[in-house]
Structure formats: structure tokens, C-alpha cells
Design goal:
This protein is 42% helix and 11% strand. It is built from 14 helices and 8 strands. Helix 9 packs across helix 11. It catalyses: Hydrolyzes free adenine bases from 7,8-dihydro-8-oxoguanine:adenine mismatched double-stranded DNA, leaving an apurinic site.
Length: 355
């Protein structure tokens, strides 16, 4: 099947069966497409819809996003993970707003914005600006790797380059927005990772993986490696006013800029830290341990629930450590496991409003 035939078959299927009612498919603009594309990285559509709608209600324009405090942006991102995406959104919005509020109209210019790579730039320019720009997100990689039976893991440079060549060859000069959404839709709904629905795929006739019986093998998975495990103790410290101490993490790195619980290598270190602040702390209650998995390691954490026996007699640095009541938790950007822990162990009468 030639590229022209592939395009025609795919677009005909999209016209009849494609998804056209997703929130970011309405009132299409570079800003809305950009926000949706960043949210959809590493995250399923069903999970993104609610976040996108809340985010757009609060930050309806690039100017409103640029003018917001990073803390608030992180609050609206809390739970989506990969928080560098939110920090880069904020930085990029400030750059665009400072330049007059218009997004770049070239691939190179778009890729200069923080957090925007080649595929995201192509999606914005094709969907919102009508340019003939290829994309290569996870769904498109899967479709093209199967269609041309491209061996190897798409994360490898040589495999990615081959897929970019195919993507460029198959991207039409007309109806680029529809084509871009169509090929993403095909990967998300029919050409899925497991159990692809080849029987009703509009381009199945030309799919080499189907012809060769390789749909389960392609694209090849990332070579497995054993993830290291890191240990941490989280101090859930409550003062006499029934407030919980939260610390702001550094602006970069894991959970950068979010509010989290004080972390320690062991229980003794947590006790030493409290004594350094002049606090008399009851013997901590060791709560059930949990695990949070990042892309490059597992974090095993053990929560320590402790209460102060004496009033607070020192002043914390408000920009990095604050005593919060449960009613304030919903106003903060919190890592997902910290939010779950607070919801689970903070007394219900102090969490009713936001729990």
C-alpha cells in the first residue's frame, strides 16, 4: 500500500470512526493542543480528560498560565506525575507570553521552548496550524513499526530514525490535522499494545507485521533491567494545633517544587532532626510501608507518624517548610503517594472538605 493509499484509508476510517469529541479537539489552538500533548505524554487519555478540563478552566490562555505562581501550576498538575512537564510548561508559557503571546510557527522555533520535542512540536504545528509535520508519539511508533515490520526497540536511535523517515513519508500535505489525529487514534483504539484489532483496521491489508504474524512481537519492548531500590522514611509530624509539617522540595529533580513530607535515611535521623529544632516528639508510630516506582528506580518509603509534646518554639523558613492543616492540602501541589498517605492517615474530621 502506497503512502497515498495509506492516507486515504486512514482518513476515511477517521471520518467515520475517529474520536472527535475529546476536550482538546474543541476550540483548537496551539495553546490547547500544547497542553493536551504534554499531559498525554506517559498518561492515558481517560486520565487526562479531567486534568485538562480543570487546567484549562483555571489557565485558559498562555498569558494566564505565565502569570500564575509555579506552586499553583503544580497544584493543578498534582497526580499526573513527571512534574518536570509542569515546570517546563510554566517556563515555556512565560517565554511565549513575553514574546507577545504567539507560539513559534516553525519546527525549530517550537523545539526551542522548554519541554517541547520534535513530536510534540509536530503535533502542535500540524493540528493547530495545518502544517505538514510528522509526529512520532508512542501510538504512532507502534502503528508504523508494525506496518513496516521495523525490528528493534523504538527507543534506540537507529530504530527511531527509521520510524521518523516513515512518518515523514506518510504525512500528507493536505488534511494534516485530521491525519495526525487519525494515526494517533488508530494506535490508541485498534493498533493497541496487546490484542490489536486487526480485523477492522483500515490499513491491515498492507501491514507487514500482520502478514508475517509479528503483531505480538512488534514493536519490540525496551530491554528489561532490574531497577535499583532506594529506602526512605517519611515523617508525618503533627503539632499541638493538629497541623502537619510539609517541606517544599528543590525546584529541580524528583517532585521538584512540590510540597512533601520530611525524608530521612532512618528513624534515628528523624529523631535527631526533631531534637535539633528543639521539639519533644512522642515515640513515632511506624506505619505500613509503600512503594512508588519511577522510571529509573523503586522508592520504598516507611511513614513515621509522630506528635509534638511541646508547642513549636522556633520559626520555620516559610518558603521551604510550613505547618498546614488538612483543609489546606487541596491547595498544594503534592506528590501522589504523599497525597494518598495524608488522606489515609490524617484524622477524618480534619480532611472531610478535601478528602
Amino acid at each position: 500500500m502506497s503512502p497515498d493509499q495509506f492516507q486515504r484509508q486512514l482518513l476515511a476510517w477517521f471520518d467515520s470512526h475517529g474520536r472527535k469529541d475529546l476536550p482538546w479537539q474543541r476550540e483548537i489552538s496551539p495553546y490547547r493542543v500544547w497542553i493536551s500533548e504534554i499531559m498525554l505524554q506517559q498518561t492515558q487519555v481517560a486520565s487526562v480528560i479531567g486534568y485538562f478540563e480543570r487546567f484549562m478552566a483555571r489557565f485558559p490562555s498562555v498569558q494566564s498560565l505565565a502569570a500564575a505562581e509555579l506552586d499553583e501550576v503544580l497544584q493543578y498538575w498534582s497526580g499526573l506525575g513527571y512534574y518536570a512537564r509542569a515546570r517546563n510548561l510554566h517556563k515555556a508559557a512565560q517565554i511565549v507570553a513575553a514574546g507577545g503571546g504567539e507560539f513559534p510557527q516553525t519546527l525549530a522555533g517550537m523545539c526551542e521552548l522548554p519541554g517541547i520535542g520534535r513530536s510534540t512540536a509536530g503535533a502542535i504545528l500540524s493540528i493547530a496550524c495545518g502544517q505538514s509535520q510528522p509526529i512520532l508519539d508512542g501510538n504512532v511508533k507502534r502503528v508504523l513499526a508494525r506496518y513496516h515490520a521495523v525490528p528493534g526497540w523504538p527507543g534506540e536511535a537507529r530504530v527511531a530514525e527509521r520510524l521518523w523517515q516513515i512518518a515523514t513519508q506518510y504525512t500528507p500535505s493536505q488534511r494534516t490535522a485530521a491525519y495526525t489525529q487519525a494515526i494517533m487514534d488508530l494506535g490508541a483504539t485498534l493498533c493497541t499494545r496487546s490484542k490489536p484489532v486487526c480485523a477492522i483496521c483500515p490499513v491491515a491489508a498492507g501491514c507487514q507485521a500482520r502478514q508475517q504474524g509479528l503483531t505480538r512481537e512488534l514493536p519490540q519492548a525496551k530491554p528489561r533491567k532490574t531497577l535499583p531500590v532506594k529506602q526512605s522514611y517519611w515523617l508525618l509530624l503533627q503539632d499541638p494545633a493538629k497541623r502537619i509539617l510539609l517541606e517544599k522540595r528543590p525546584p529541580t529533580g524528583i517532585w521538584g517544587g512540590l510540597w512533601s513530607l520530611p525524608e530521612f535515611d532512618d528513624i534515628a535521623a528523624a529523631g535527631d532532626w526533631c531534637r535539633q529544632h528543639g521539639w519533644m516528639v512522642k515515640a513515632p508510630q511506624v506505619l505500613s510501608a509503600g512503594r512508588h516506582t519511577f522510571s529509573h528506580y523503586h522508592l520504598d518509603y516507611t511513614p513515621l507518624l509522630a506528635g509534638l509534646e511541646n508547642p513549636i518554639n522556633n520559626v520555620m523558613e516559610a518558603d521551604r517548610a510550613v505547618w498546614y492543616k488538612a483543609a489546606d492540602f487541596a491547595l498544594l501541589g503534592l506528590p501522589a503517594p504523599v497525597k494518598r498517605l495524608l488522606q489515609q492517615h490524617y484524622p477524618e474530621d480534619y480532611y472531610d472538605e478535601n478528602g
